[in-house]
Amino acid sequence: RGPRGGLWVARPMALRAVYLLRSAHPRFGGRSYVGFTVDPERRLRQHNAGRKKGGAWRTSGRGPWWMELYVYGFPSDVAALRFEWAWQHPAASRRLPDVTPRRPRERPIAFALRLLPRLLRAPPWCRLPLRLRWLRPPPHPTLDPAPPSHVVVESGQFPVRRPRPRRRKRPRPAAATPPPEEATPPALPCDLCMEPCEDKTSPPLRCPQPGCPLSAHPLCLARFFLRPEPLELLPMDGACP
What we know:
- The protein is an alpha+beta fold.
- Helix content is about 20%, strand content about 15%.
- The strands form 2 sheets. A 5-stranded mixed beta sheet has the order 2-1-3-4-5. Strands 6-7 form a two-stranded antiparallel sheet.
- Helix 2 crosses helix 3.
């Protein structure tokens, strides 16, 4: 509840997508384009409408374009834009030192699909909870090597985007006698640092196994899981202590 009686609704996480386009033009068949957007469906319409309607100069006049797939789940714009740049410039990227350059008769779209799984396995993106969504009808091309096991692979058309809910205002109630204060239960202690879990922004994590009473701060549990990998920041998995 806001300071004036309105209801605050949590906004959904912003979509940051790095997409791959394929040209369906008979002259430019096999051409590809990699870009970044927060609205893949709208961005595809702009590419097909031309440069004057918001499309890129590299795609203008070479359409129609089809969107093969897009990768999303990046925690920030910087992480997504770095992924896009490495996909566009594999020879200059330090994340792909062992990638074979484009072969003589290899089409650009095939080369882009060959780079994608190697990018998903390269740090720092290999430790992010990314998702890959195919937009072309099946059967989908086989990615070699396969993406990491934690990358969720989806298929289908563009998801329906629901309108963002607005904050509803409620009239301020008349002054009334405040209800008696209820005794708040004591905060559970963290089983790793033994400090109380009072932070509302990051509630304690609990073990999903039935009957396990573990309760820990997210940072404490992350440090525990990262003991075998002290140079990493995000843990991939771990055993309950």
